[in-house]
Automatic annotation (TrEMBL):
It comes from Lepraria neglecta. PANTHER family: CARBOXYPEPTIDASE, SERINE PROTEASE FAMILY S10 SERINE CARBOXYPEPTIDASE. It holds the Pfam family Peptidase_S10. Transmembrane segments: none annotated. This is Carboxypeptidase. Belongs to the peptidase S10 family. GO terms for biological process: proteolysis. Gene3D superfamilies: alpha/beta hydrolase.
């Protein structure tokens, strides 16, 4: 539902709770199916049960043993019907079979779509889901299971994926903005590289595969490295340009999905929540978030099986995929219909890495036009740079080995943006642009923000 209403679906929801048209919706180019998974995430459920959420921070659902609900939670509007908080699945690998079964059910119910090729798009934790789920799908296809539908997978698209914490946990940005003072930078460095700290724990997790060790490592890195963005900086870790609370992308769709009119229209069985504490806790027991567990290897396998793979974000990971010729390819600008350079691509054969400028985590919200156009090119088997070339194994972009463009700190905000503000995809700032943000960036006493905290490579 996040992707559907905040990014690439046909509608967005405005501050007044109205559904409005998204001209850059991906259903301009393809039929789309949005899947809330694993069970208990979003509108998906195992067993519907009455309940309420007493603490919005944790999101824990308390099951009601009667039909009555605490009066304070009636006021907060959290009383409703939720999925029973069962603790499974507890890892990416464990969730893959249910995802495959869901597609089987859909194709059985709607045979008119089972003849079509399948393109898988995901983001964020999709760095785990995309490679693992689709390699599982390919494995199931190879078994020729009687009665099962063959899922004709052609493309896997992963936006800002989380693949391997040992590669991705290190801080850095291309906005020429150093958010830390010396004391915080030293603390962060020690939390990362100090004896027995984040990196050491992640290495031990990778070496042992122990659920206990991996869970402890993931929790340590989350609390002592990632959360420094939130606790010390009060900045959004998903878009360092914005102070918390960050209104982008707006969350108005959550209330919209919990209206009686919408729920009756779509036949919803449970109330909608953006986060499932039950699933988060279950995955935490195995430390799934702190593992690489074949995500990069599975991308390599998909490419060898003739699947197109496009990575949007995650440059260091793209180098680990080891696609033939990728180390010799170079960066070129991505040409789009508006004539503006929104990013660059490095591509070898069916594998491409795309870097998008001036964007937060959910790229189709911040840069919708280039997102739609590279989606169209990828699923059509065309080159990502222009969309004019049919890609074969010998295709390779020719350009500099590194993407050196620096966004600068022009779009970084130094005051909290109003919760009802709209985002200007042309300027990359709140609409209208924040006077405080722009003026602050032009003042001489802000010169310290021109420094860059460079990540240290292992």
């Amino acid at each position: 539902m996040i992707g559907l209403f905040q990014e690439n679906g046909p509608c967005r929801v405005d501050a007044n709770g109205n559904a409005i048209n998204n001209p850059y919706a991906w259903n301009n180019a393809s039929n789309m199916i949005f899947i809330d998974q694993p069970a208990q995430v979003g509108f998906s459920y195992s067993t519907p049960t009455p309940g309420y959420i007493p603490d919005a921070t944790s999101g824990e659902i308390v099951v009601l043993n009667s039909t009555s609900c605490p009066s304070d939670n009636i006021t907060q509007g959290t009383c409703g019907t939720y999925s029973t908080p069962e603790l499974k699945p507890n890892s990416t690998a464990a969730a893959a079979p249910a995802f495959w079964a869901t597609l089987q059910g859909f194709m059985g119910a709607f045979p008119q779509y089972s003849r079509e090729t399948f393109h898988f798009s995901t983001e964020s934790y999709g760095g785990h889901y995309g490679p693992v789920f689709n390699e599982y799908i390919e494995g199931q296809n190879a078994k020729n299971i009687p009665g099962a539908h063959n899922i004709s997978l052609e493309t896997v698209l992963i936006g800002n994926g989380w693949y391997n914490p040992l590669i991705q946990v290190f801080p850095g940005n291309t906005y020429d903005y150093s958010p830390y003072n010396a004391t915080t930078a030293e603390l962060l460095y020690n939390n990362l590289y100090g004896a027995g700290n984040c990196v050491d724990q992640l290495i031990e997790c990778a070496n042992t595969g122990s659920n206990v060790i991996c869970s402890a490592a993931d929790n340590y890195c989350a609390h002592n490295v990632e959360e420094i963005y939130d606790i010390v900086l009060n900045r959004d870790e998903y878009d360092i340009r914005e102070l918390a609370p960050d209104p982008f992308p707006p969350g108005f769709y959550v209330a919209y999905l919990n209206t009686a009119t919408v729920q009756n229209a779509i036949g919803a069985y449970v109330n909608y929540t953006e986060f499932s504490a039950a699933v988060g806790n279950a995955f935490n027991t195995t430390g799934d978030d702190g593992r690489e567990d074949g995500t990069i290897e599975d991308m390599r396998e998909l490419l060898e099986q003739g699947i197109t793979v496009m990575m949007l974000g995650g440059q260091a990971v793209s180098l680990e995929v080891s696609q033939p010729g990728f180390d010799k390819a170079g960066y070129v600008n991505v040409t789009t219909s508006d004539g503006v350079v929104h990013g660059q691509v490095k591509q070898s054969g069916a594998f491409s890495f795309v870097r998008i400028y001036e964007s937060g985590h959910e790229v189709p919200f911040y840069q919708p036009l280039i997102s739609l156009e590279i989606f169209e090119r990828a699923i059509a088997g065309r080159d990502i740079a222009t969309g004019c070339v049919d890609v074969d194994s010998g295709y390779m972009t020719s350009g500099p080995a590194e993407s050196t463009y620096r966004e600068g700190n022009f779009t970084i905000q130094f005051s909290v943006v109003n919760t009802t503000a709209t985002y200007n995809v042309t300027t990359g700032e709140p609409n209208p642009p924040s006077k405080e943000g722009r003026f602050a960036k032009r003042q001489p006493d802000q010169a310290q923000f021109g420094k860059v905290l460079k990540p240290v490579k292992l």
